[in-house]
Amino acid sequence: MKISESCAIITGGSSGLGGATARNFVAGGAKVAIFDTNVAKGEALAAEFGEDGLFVQTDVTSEENLKSAIKKTLDQFGKISVCVNCAGIGAAQKTMGKEGPHSLGLYRTVLDVNLTGTFNTLRLAVEAMEENEPNADGERGVIVNTASVAAFDGQKGQVAYSASKGGIVGMTLPIARDLAYYGIRVCAIAPGLFLTPLFEGLGQEVVDSLSTQVTFPKRLGDPAEFGMLARTIVENPYLNGETIRLDGAIRLP
Ligand SMILES: NC(=O)c1ccc[n+]([C@@H]2O[C@H](COP(=O)([O-])OP(=O)(O)OC[C@H]3O[C@@H](n4cnc5c(N)ncnc54)[C@H](O)[C@@H]3O)[C@@H](O)[C@H]2O)c1
């Protein structure tokens, strides 16, 4: 699917990997609607995009929020052909620790935002994509979900996060199969360590130490590199049903 003819919704688009994807898509001629809870950053980025951008304050866990955000996008841009899911949160707690068993509330919150929020968004985006005229390749839409290398090599304290990202990996193929009839493709990206606000706050020493764990190149990922892969998934019609690691060959110890 040509990026220049795309109208994309990007959850988590106010910041980090989603923000970089929004920049890449708009530079390629796409229209982009940012769905995020961070109003200040989302509005500032959408303002940079002028008529090609829209920000809608949206909590991906809410069906009502999503329906209204999708309606606003359709009113403004006329269609939705791409859905990129980057909204996500982290958590650090062990299954059993000094303070007792893992909080069930925290576990549920992480699963709710990262996994259910992704599914909530894409199922409603598909309802809009289904209305599109198929292009020459028979495509009506493309979905890009964000997993993590923690889906495969999760570390201590990452049980909730890894479970949520494992869920993203696991649902990729059945969604591709479900949506083939409609001409909609889906892939997931499993990033390694990327220099987003999350890591920027940790300081240079920690960033340098994490960088040594990457096989090559010996640095954290640049969010722009995530945006490049998201765009490739949109543009390459034969990519479907797959999770792609984007990680400089890191394997978390
Ligand atoms: N940065 C990394 O190294 C890395 C590695 C692997 C996976 N990931 C994943 O990539 C995605 C983006 O992460 P990032 O590093 O860009 O983080 P980030 O914090 O910069 O961006 C995440 C965005 O999601 C938004 N968000 C959080 N909860 C939301 C909700 N309920 N509804 C709508 N928006 C919500 C936040 O406001 C924020 O703008 C996440 O799913 C994360 O798990 C990141």
Can you characterise this structure?
The chain is of the alpha/beta class. It has one domain: Rossmann fold (3-Layer(aba) Sandwich). It has nine helices and nine strands. Helix 1 links the parallel strand 1 and strand 2. The mean pLDDT is 97. Residues 11-12, 14-18, 36-38, 58-61, 86-89, 113-114, 117, 146, 148, 191, 193-194, 196-198 line the site of nicotinamide-adenine-dinucleotide (NAD).
CATH architecture: 3-Layer(aba) Sandwich
The count of strands amounts to: 9
Mean pLDDT: 97
Low-confidence stretches: none
**Structural class of the helices, strands and pairings?**
alpha/beta
List the domain count as a whole number: 1
Largest sheet: 7 strands, parallel
- Count the DSSP helices: 9
- What is the CA-based Rg, rounded? 18 Å
How widely separated are the two ends?
38 Å
Q: What is the highest CATH level, the class? A: Alpha Beta
Strand % is 15-25%
In sequence order, what are the helices and strands, one letter per element? EHEHEHEEEHEHHEHHHE
Task: Give the CATH superfamily.
Answer: NAD(P)-binding Rossmann-like Domain
Which percent bin holds the helix content? 40-55%
What gross morphology would you assign? globular
Strand order of the largest sheet: 3-2-1-4-7-8-9
Bound molecules: nicotinamide-adenine-dinucleotide
